[in-house]
Records
---
Amino acid sequence: MLDAAVKALSQMISPPMRSILWRSIGVALVLIIVLAIGLQRLLSWFATYGEVWLEGLLGPGWHTSLEVLAWIVSIAAGLGVVFGAVFLMPAITSLVASLFVDDVADHVEREHYPAERPGVALPFSQAITEGVKTALLTILVYLIALPFVLLAGAGFLIFFLATAWLLGREYFELAAMRFRSPEEAKAMRRDNAATIFTAGLIIAAFVSIPIVNLATPIFGMAFMVHMHKRLSGPRPELIEPARQMR
């Protein structure tokens, strides 16, 4: 697993991969700015008007609790783009990965597995659908964990573990679906859940590093291409022709 991570890191900055790296960083930055500004506007609305709306909906007995929540939200709105960038980064990387899955996988397979059958490019709509589903699931999980972050440090651990599970799941299935049907890819992920979650911890650590995490789609995809190859094991159709003739 560490060998796969090292190979992914080294290839990530190789000349053939740099064009993809810069394009993915550009897309990620645009998404971060747009989504973070949207989040800031939403938080500002809640801090200004949402408290009154919720109190009318829930009743005056919730006044104190909603007042405290509005105060917390107003602080979050003040942080705005910074808060949004940190909170939304894993979701954004899921979307970006779905755009560049085949570009990254093709480079990894050509360099490290030239004698093996290449994967089949995912239909664009399927890749985007998988990315959007993971991004929405990521946001939902983070919203559930957010109160724990505000009330106790354990929330950050929940964030980290959730990120490991979500991103490990996303990147592995994208890599596997180049060789398998979606159902087979998901079944393989479930059969190797512990290994893929452990690999996801490495991706979660990577996405936790500011600035560097803009390259998460490239690292995560390259890493999981290697992991899929290792978990697939030797298959007759992937053996070099010269070795088959021996």
---
Amino acid sequence: MPLQDRKNHWENIYQTRSLEEVSWYQPTPETSLALIKEFDLPKAAKIIDIGAGDSFLVDHLLDLGFVNITVLDISASAIERAKQRLGNKSANIKWIVADASDFQPKEQYDFWHDRAAFHFLTADKEIDNYIQTASNAVSKNGIMVIGTFSEEGPKKCSGIDIQQYSESTLVSRFQKHFEKIECFTIDHKTPFDTVQNFVFCSFKRKND
């Protein structure tokens, strides 16, 4: 899907559907929070949430005392919804409206988090751009967490084709610049009582 078409699609989603009407809704993103706890990040760590939409992860990060958080999404409407929900707290967040495959970071991050953005990239050029961006934007020895639909998960989301991954195919995508820490699969129960199987992999940026 061309970049502008993808942007228009997501603007429409966030302008017409409420939080509880999207499959990725998670009031408490337990898997992501468990991984952040596992890596024992300092409160001043630079954290970026890629394709965050109006996810509640940022709320929990603020509650945990993290002070250097960036939220990126292709949809300005999604970011505006998150800002309105956070109220005055939104001033403590860096907000970026950009596509994950066309993002030009101006700083490096200690923790790169992506739950269900990467798998929307299906063209080789977009995937390569994302990987190159991540390799430049994650600090040396920094951590990256990627969650995608597994090979047992859906083949589409919100009417868009996605790229399914297994542990081996996801690791192979990033192996030039990142070393695998761990991978696992997990089921996400949607608000519609359906189940989506995800594969999550955590990586350490190679010191190359």
---
Amino acid sequence: MAHHHDHERGHGPHHGHTDIDWAEMGPTLEASAELFASLYERALGWLAQEVTEPGLIVDAGSGPGVVSCLFAETFPGARIVAVDGSDGLLERARARAERLGVADRFGTITGELPDVLSELDYPADLLWASRSLHHLGDQRGALAAFAQRLAPGGTLALMEGGLPLRFLPRDFGIGRPGLQARIDAVEAEWFTRMRTELPGHVAETENWPALLAAAGLKHTRTHSFLLDLPAPASDRARAYVVASLSHMRDKLAEGLDAEDLATVDRLLDPDDEASLHHRPDVFVLEAHTVHTAVRPA
């Protein structure tokens, strides 16, 4: 269940578009991103090996700003601009920056990607887009627009893809074994429908390095980062799993059989001892992939 849920804006867990009140989702999005902080920190450390002393870092699709603030900590000389379509989420980002003492070099811009990036005062040395691109109908066009906002020698970092969330053993004692693989298949179909219904949708092969190169960028790199939180799950990890499956529940009704749906409902029922709320075997295992490329100097 991972390709398509976003802790930040665009990783609560699963999202549609017009039917989501992003500001209302703020606490869930923030908690999910905090759970993944160690993964993001490793990703930012990897970026820092090649992106040295950036002046401006743009978080395109920042959500409540958890990663934006991690950028502020990782790059203490940089100015950070969080960009998102939800001012409610950006309010949370500004409050977080204030709490962490980085508000003096932290700004926000409200608007829809990619056009809102024209409001930047100067080009970015690093533009980070974490699972925001797949919300845009024309991904190739959006990448070209992202690339245009980079300073010469600037880096575009794209977090897309990875491996789906796993949170229980293949056979966890209720229902038919292999439930999560069947959920993956339903979500993949849902994601395809979501993409095709986006305004201005353009079908695109998800070869991210090739798309970055097509945007005129060079030196593509790819690295995946694993979040491995073994059982027994912490309260925060357990809450993330419950939220992830809960947000999938309506979509699952279209693709799972009655037995699997009954199993899902048991997993979500806080009064059931076999549920995710009580089981000792709940874990979190998930991977995110980051692709980078550089604007020629």
